[in-house]
Amino acid sequence: MIKHVVLFQLKTFASETKKVEKLNEIKSALEALPQKVDVIRSLEVGLNANEAEEYDIALSTTFDSMEDLDIYAKHPDHVTVGGIIKAVLEKRACVDFEC
Asked: Cα angle vertex 6, ends 5, 8, to 5°?
């Protein structure tokens, strides 16, 4: 099994309301992926509750293999969600590990 963990830091928004709206849009889009991408074994999305930390969103997904992770990465629905994120992305960190 492969665990794919990604952290996203979003750019500064004009208001906290706009940021929360975008965070919820991204969370909903990510949470819809398991119904569209059959290689996803599990998916969890969390919005940061600790203002002292710099990242806004945590994504944890599990796949059977690195090959399945590659299928996910190239899947059109994943690419679409990636575009939503990239439009407001400041920084990203990622780790893929065997579990």
From this structure: 155
Measured CA distances, 12 to 50, 58, 67, 89 (Å):
17, 18, 35, 9
Cite the beta strand spans of the chain per DSSP E.
2-10, 42-47, 57-63, 89-98
Q: Which residue is it, tokens 């794919």? A: 4
Q: CA angle at residue 54 from 44 to 52, to 5 degrees?
A: 105
Rounded to two decimals, what is the model's pTM?
0.95
CATH annotation of 2-98 = 3.30.70.100
CB 78 within 8 A of CB 28: no
Which residues of the chain carry a pLDDT beneath 50? none
